Amino acid sequence: MENESEQVYEAEDIQKILKLGKNKVYDFLEDVCSNTHFFRVIKIGRLYRIPKNSFDQWLNREE
């Protein structure tokens, strides 16, 4: 079984992948969590965890 760090992205990972600033990433994750639901976002207090499968499917989707 994979450990947690191999199953989820953290906000800093999303920041690097999308090449966005810290504030933009947190605003984006809050919006996804609350409104858009493009991919799963788990919010624990002020921490965000994003399941890799969900995010990767959204990122690699074909339009």
- Rounded radius of gyration (Å): 11 Å
- Examine the coordinates and then state which fold CATH places here, giving the name of the CATH topology: Molybdopterin biosynthesis moea protein, domain 2
Task: Identify low-pLDDT runs.
Answer: none
User: Would you list the SSEs in sequence order as H and E?
Assistant: HEHHEEH
Strand percentage, roughly?
A: 15-25%
Q: How many discrete domains?
A: 1
Mass-distribution shape = globular
Average pLDDT over all residues: 91
| CATH structural architecture | Alpha-Beta Complex
Describe the structure.
The protein contains four helices and three strands, in the order H-E-H-H-E-E-H. The chain is α+β, with helices and mostly antiparallel strands and 63 residues long. The protein has one domain: Molybdopterin biosynthesis moea protein, domain 2. Strands 1-3-2 form a three-stranded antiparallel beta sheet. Strand 2 and strand 3 form a beta hairpin. It is globular, with a radius of gyration of 11 Å. It starts with a helix and ends with a helix. The mean pLDDT is 91.
How is the secondary structure organized here?
Layout lengths: L3 H4 E3 H8 L3 H15 L5 E3 L2 E5 H8 L4
Helix pairs in contact: 2-3
Provide tags for this entry:
Molybdopterin biosynthesis moea protein, domain 2, 3 strands, alpha+beta, 63 residues, 3-stranded antiparallel sheet, globular, single chain
Put the structure in a nutshell:
With 63 residues, the chain is of the alpha+beta class.
